[in-house]
Design brief:
This protein is of the alpha/beta class and 412 residues long. Helices cover 54% and strands 8% of the residues. It has 2 domains: 23-269, no CATH class; 292-408, Alpha Horseshoe (Serine Threonine Protein Phosphatase 5, Tetratricopeptide repeat). Strand 4 (123-130) and strand 5 (137-143) form a beta hairpin.
Length: 412
C-alpha cells in the first residue's frame, strides 16, 4: 500500500509578540525557542484537536523565578484549555472556528519572555502564520514561565484573551488594519466572557481592576463611539456581567466605521514604521550571532521577506547552517523545502535525509513524514516495518495523519 501525504505537515513560524502590543512588534522575527534543549524532554501531544507543546528550560540559563518543567507546563496548558472548553461555550465555539480554519497550537516555553522589566507577560499570541500552501492559518499562543506558575483556572481566561481574542482577529485578517487599542479591546472582552462563564468573583479586587482596565483604557474609544452612535446599546455595559456577545456585535460595526474614516489606517501606518525599526535591530542581532536558532530565524525572515528582501536561496543557506548544527526545526524545514521543490529542484533523497534527522530529534511531523517516505519508498529504500515504527511514534503523540496511516498498515 501507499500512504498519500495530502498536505505537507505545517511549519509553525513563531515570532515574538508582546502581550499588549500585538501590532507594534508583529514582524520582529524573534522566536523564543531555546537553543540548547534536551530533545528527549520536549513534550508534544494533541488535546481537543489542538497541538500542545512543552519546551524544557535551556541548559545553563538562569531565570527570575523557579521554572515549571516542560511536561508539567504542557499539562497545565491542557488543563486550562479543558477548563475553558467545558466552562465557556462562547470561547469554545470561537476556538472551533480557528480549528476549522487552520492549525491551533499552544506552546509552553519557560524561555518566554526573554526578559521582563516593568511587567509580567503571562502569554502571547503569535500572528500571521499562513501555511506555505496558502490553504490555512496557524493560530499560535505561547505561555511563558510566569504563566507556568499560575493555576489552570486562572490561566484559562488568559488563553481566551490571547488565543481566542487575537486568534479571531487573525482569522478575520484584521491584525494589520486595526489599531492596537482596538485589538486589545476585543481580546479583553473575550477574557471578560471567560471570567463570567467560569464564575470568577466579580467583586474581587483583581476583577474590579480588570474591569476598569477594560472599560477605561482599552475599550474607552469604543464605548465613546457606541454612546454617540448606538446610545441605546450602552446598557450592555451597565451590569455586573456585560453582555459580551452584544458588545462584540457593536464592536465590529465600530471597527468598520474606523476603517472607512481612515483613523485606523493612519495608526497602523505609524505602527508599521515602528515594526521596521524593531525588525532591523533584530536582524542585526541575529546576523552577529553564532546561535543555530538565530540562523534558523534568519532563514524564516528571508523566506517571508520580513525586514529583508525575500530570497529563498539565502533562506536555504541559513536553514542549512542551522540544520547542520543540529537544529531540529531547521532540519524539518529543509525536508519540507526539498520535498516540495520550494525554490530548489525537488529532491526526495535530500528531503528524506533531513526528515530522518528531524524525526530522530523528535519532531512529530517529521516522524510521520519520514515514516511515510519509508513505507512508500520515496527518497529511501522501501521499508514498511521501519516506516510503521516512525509513523507509530507520531501517532502516539496524536498526529492525525499518522493515526489514519496506521489503520491502513499491517502490524509489525
Amino acid at each position: 500500500m501507499r500512504i498519500t501525504i495530502l498536505k505537507f505537515p505545517p511549519i509553525h513560524r513563531l515570532r515574538k509578540a508582546s502581550h499588549a502590543l500585538i501590532t507594534a512588534v508583529i514582524l520582529a522575527g524573534a522566536t523564543v525557542l531555546p537553543v540548547a534543549i534536551n530533545a528527549e524532554e520536549k513534550v508534544d501531544f494533541i488535546h481537543r484537536g489542538i497541538t500542545i507543546s512543552g519546551i524544557p528550560k535551556p541548559k545553563d540559563k538562569f531565570f527570575d523565578i523557579d521554572v515549571t518543567p516542560a511536561k508539567e507546563g504542557a499539562e497545565l496548558v491542557r488543563d486550562a484549555l479543558e477548563i475553558l472548553y467545558t466552562g465557556s461555550s462562547f470561547n469554545a465555539k470561537a476556538i472551533e472556528r480557528l480549528k476549522a480554519a487552520g492549525h491551533v497550537i499552544i506552546v509552553y516555553d519557560p524561555a518566554f519572555p526573554k526578559r521582563e522589566f516593568s511587567k509580567l507577560t503571562i502569554a502571547a499570541f503569535f500572528p500571521y502564520f499562513f501555511q506555505k500552501d496558502g490553504n490555512g492559518k496557524d493560530f499560535v499562543t505561547f505561555v511563558g514561565r510566569f504563566g507556568g506558575k499560575w493555576a489552570a483556572r486562572e490561566l484559562a481566561p488568559v488563553i481566551a484573551h490571547e488565543l481566542t481574542g487575537h486568534g479571531i482577529q487573525h482569522l478575520r485578517g484584521r491584525l494589520e488594519h486595526v489599531r492596537e487599542v482596538d485589538l486589545e479591546c476585543e481580546a479583553y472582552m473575550y477574557q471578560e466572557k471567560a471570567y463570567q462563564d467560569l464564575n470568577f468573583d466579580k467583586n474581587a479586587r483583581e476583577m474590579i481592576a480588570f474591569r476598569q482596565t477594560l472599560e477605561r483604557h482599552w475599550c474607552a474609544d469604543f464605548k465613546k463611539w457606541q454612546k454617540n452612535n448606538l446610545p441605546k446599546n450602552s446598557k450592555y455595559w451597565d451590569q455586573l456581567h456585560p453582555d459580551i456577545p452584544k458588545l462584540i456585535e457593536d464592536y465590529l460595526v465600530y471597527i468598520e466605521a474606523l476603517r472607512k474614516s481612515g483613523v485606523a489606517g493612519k495608526a497602523v501606518k505609524r505602527a508599521k514604521a515602528a515594526q521596521n525599526n524593531v525588525t532591523s535591530e533584530r536582524i542585526a542581532m541575529l546576523l552577529a550571532s553564532d546561535d543555530p536558532d538565530a540562523h534558523f530565524q534568519l532563514g524564516q525572515l528571508y523566506t517571508r521577506g520580513i525586514g529583508v528582501e525575500e530570497n529563498k536561496q539565502i533562506a536555504l543557506n541559513w536553514f542549512e547552517k542551522a540544520a547542520e548544527a543540529g537544529h531540529a526545526r531547521a532540519q524539518f524545514e529543509l525536508a519540507r523545502i526539498y520535498w516540495k521543490g520550494d525554490g530548489v529542484y525537488l529532491d526526495k533523497v535530500l528531503s528524506a535525509q533531513w526528515a530522518k534527522a528531524a524525526a530522530e530529534n523528535n519532531i512529530t511531523a517529521a516522524e510521520y513524514l519520514y515514516g511515510a517516505m519509508l513505507v512508500n519508498g520515496d527518497g529511501v529504500t522501501r521499508d514498511i516495518k521501519k516506516g510503521r515504527t516512525f509513523i507509530g511514534k507520531a501517532a502516539d503523540k496524536g498526529h492525525k495523519g499518522a493515526i489514519d496511516a496506521l489503520k491502513k498498515l499491517p502490524p509489525n
